[in-house]
Specification:
about 55% helix; about 10% strand; PH_domain; six-stranded antiparallel beta sheet; five-stranded antiparallel beta sheet
């Protein structure tokens, strides 16, 4: 039930019922007063807690800002760069939130505490003062009334009239105090509905504004969060892939013990035994120094230049761990004996040793059988559909994969042998394809270009990465390049079904990075570069389609070999004004020899010079620059793309045609 209404007329009667109803109002007023006092105390504690929280968050934010990630290796992937930068992004986000919280804290006193204290002191305090006055006048009136009623009627009329006038005056004072008190106490009860609630509403509005700011920041943060999650997933995938390779290397080191190739200035160093001759110490893959059995060098100046190295088959000699070498300085074959099988393997690797011709299955070379096998695998996989979850990621049963390889690459098997779809399941086929590429005697991307590919993708300039990788692709041997095109075209098809098979370009990079590229040396440092090998594959897949789309377009089109861009071309679509426009390279008139000579000559030009455009140019690709005639370029230097220069114009860096500019 609500509070009873107090009528002004009841103030004159001052009945027990009136006093009871007035008491209800007084109790409610005391309860409200107590509540407001507690609320003010809680408000102070809340503000203090917010201040402490804000200080803690700011300290946390500062720690994030000051921390610097350090990654293993001489370069970082884009994913690692974004992850390293994430702490600063988090710090900035928290600082933005804290700015809004600080405004909330600064306004809290004015918005919440001060109005509540003012209401309690001015309104409830005034009602309490009215009660004191009411009680005082009531006591005075009823005391005087009692005395007045006890006056004797025998007193003079003038004295009685004076007493009557005095009691009327005191009664009026009591009535006035009663009326004012009734008015004030009901006024406070009504005012608390808004003057008490409004400060709370304003404070909550500030609190909601703070939370809304958080919501808006979260909405703006969503794209970055999604990108960061993508970076984290890529990095996790790279970590798992690298971890497997590093663990394998660690186990090989553990099992190889002293036979493990030691680090040092030589490709390989150690002792070998030559049949019926002194022991031999090889100190490099190209020179041999002879030692006696007791470790004394028989001829310190005698060195040999290596011509060939072939492993000896077990059934061709009584002793184990042997291999044959031919040197320039001597005629005939020298048979050497290593200390163990693993030690022989290391020597063979160091001296580019070959396996003896064997009638057994051999799938370590890029030959007709290998090309046929890859094409048949791809054909069968694409025929069955590319929506299989984890395609190429989920491996097949090893025994089945080995059976497939033995069957296809058996000396008795036809080079164009078909794969029976009823015999071989998808996992076996995909694992067989990866196994063939992984077991090549030299990786598809070659040892020679391995470091060049890594260096290209470690650049901060994404456009340069694409151009450099494509230029390096064209340095591959023809067979390697042909096989790479077949494979990348297929992987692009696989990636277009990533919504179903979950094999995004990034995931395919993780699978095929270590398959297509590997370092000649098995070290932890080399394993840490696997993530960059993955990026090379990603670039090839992502840019394959663009190259293929305009492969047949010869007007204003880059010179291409297979499907990979060799010369991105920049033109405005119209012939430049007189003098006659520069002659453009025609696809039919260029050879690789010309290309490489052009690259060599380009790098003889002085780098980082200024240049001026003699023709206008409209860019056709994101990595090219658009510019008017007379444009001034700074920081001009040769690009990896023949016929193109890297330059900066109006703050943007990109490619410009070399024959469209003149140097100052």
């Amino acid at each position: 039930m609500g509070l009873p209404t107090l009528e002004f007329s009841d103030s004159f009667v001052d009945s027990p019922d009136f006093r009871e109803r007035l008491k209800c109002h007084e109790i409610e007023l005391d309860r409200t007063n107590t509540f407001i006092k507690e609320l003010i105390t809680d408000g102070h504690q809340l503000i203090c807690a917010l201040k402490n929280l804000s200080a803690a968050v700011q300290k946390f934010s500062q720690s994030l800002q000051e921390f610097q990630f350090e990654c293993i290796g001489d370069a970082e992937t884009d994913d690692e760069v974004n992850i390293a930068q994430s702490f600063k992004e988090f710090s900035q986000l928290l600082n933005t939130m804290e700015e809004e919280r600080r405004r909330l804290i600064q306004n809290a006193d004015d918005v919440l505490i001060t109005p509540l204290e003012r209401f309690r002191k001015e309104q409830i305090g005034a009602a309490k003062e009215g009660k004191k006055k009411f009680d005082k006048e009531a006591e005075k009136y009823y005391s005087s009334l009692e005395k007045h009623l006890n006056l004797s009627s025998r007193k003079k009329e003038s004295a009685l009239q004076e007493a009557d006038a005095q009691i009327d005056k005191e009664r009026q004072l009591f009535y006035d105090a009663s009326l004012e008190y009734v008015f004030k106490i009901q006024e406070v009860q009504e005012k608390k509905k808004f003057e008490f609630v409004e400060p709370l509403l304003a404070f909550l509005q500030g609190l909601f504004t703070f939370y809304h700011e958080g919501y808006e920041l979260a909405h703006e943060f969503e794209p970055y969060k999604q990108q960061l999650q993508f970076n984290l997933q890529n990095t996790r995938n790279n970590f798992l892939s690298t971890k497997q390779e590093v663990e394998k290397l660690m186990n090989r080191v553990r099992s190889a013990d002293q036979d493990q190739k030691p680090p040092g200035q030589w490709t390989m160093e150690g002792y070998l035994y030559v049949q019926e001759k002194p022991a031999v110490c090889i100190r490099s893959s190209l020179s041999v120094s002879l030692f006696s059995q007791n470790g004394v060098m028989s001829n310190p100046t005698e060195k040999f230049r290596l011509k060939s190295c072939i492993r000896r088959k077990t059934d061709s000699i009584d002793k184990r761990f042997c291999f044959d070498i031919e040197v320039v300085e001597r005629h005939g074959i020298i048979t050497l004996q290593a200390l163990s099988e693993s030690n022989r393997r290391l020597w063979l690797e160091a001296m580019d040793g070959k396996e003896p011709v064997s009638p057994e299955a051999n799938f370590s070379y890029l030959n007709e059988a290998g090309f046929n096998f890859v094409r048949k695998c791809i054909q069968l996989v694409e025929l069955r559909g590319l929506s299989t979850m984890g395609l190429y990621r989920v491996g097949g049963i090893n025994s089945k994969v080995q059976k497939l390889m033995t069957t296809v690459f058996s000396p008795k098997a036809a080079s164009d042998m078909d794969l029976d779809s009823d015999t071989w399941d998808n996992k076996t086929i995909t694992s067989g394809l990866k196994n063939y590429l992984r077991c090549l005697s030299e990786p598809l991307m070659t040892y020679k270009l391995h470091s060049d590919f890594l260096l290209a993708v470690k650049s901060d300039d994404q456009n340069y990465r694409v151009c450099a990788v494509h230029a390096l692709v064209h340095k591959l041997p023809d067979k390697n390049k042909e096989m790479l095109e077949i494979l990348i075209k297929h992987l692009l098809n696989v990636s277009t079904h990533s919504e179903n098979n979950m094999m995004t370009v990034s995931n395919l990079g993780v699978i095929f990075g270590p398959t297509l590229m590997r370092s000649q040396e098995e070290t932890v440092a080399a394993m840490m570069n696997i993530k960059f090998q993955n990026i090379v594959v990603e670039i090839l897949i992502e840019n394959f389609e663009k190259a293929s789309e305009s492969k047949d377009n010869t007007q204003h089109t880059p010179v291409r070999n297979n499907a990979f861009i060799l010369y991105p071309y920049c033109t405005n679509g119209h012939a430049p004004p007189p003098p006659p426009p520069p002659q453009k390279i025609k696809p039919t008139n260029i050879s690789f020899k010309t290309v490489y000579e052009h690259i060599r000559k380009s790098f003889l030009i002085l780098i980082h010079r200024d240049a001026k455009a003699i023709y206008s140019c409209e860019a056709e690709h994101s990595h090219e620059l658009s510019f008017p005639k007379g444009a001034h370029f700074s920081n001009v230097y040769p690009s990896v793309e023949p016929g193109w220069l890297q330059a900066t114009f109006e703050g943007k860096t990109g490619l410009v045609p070399e024959n469209y500019v003149v140097f100052f």
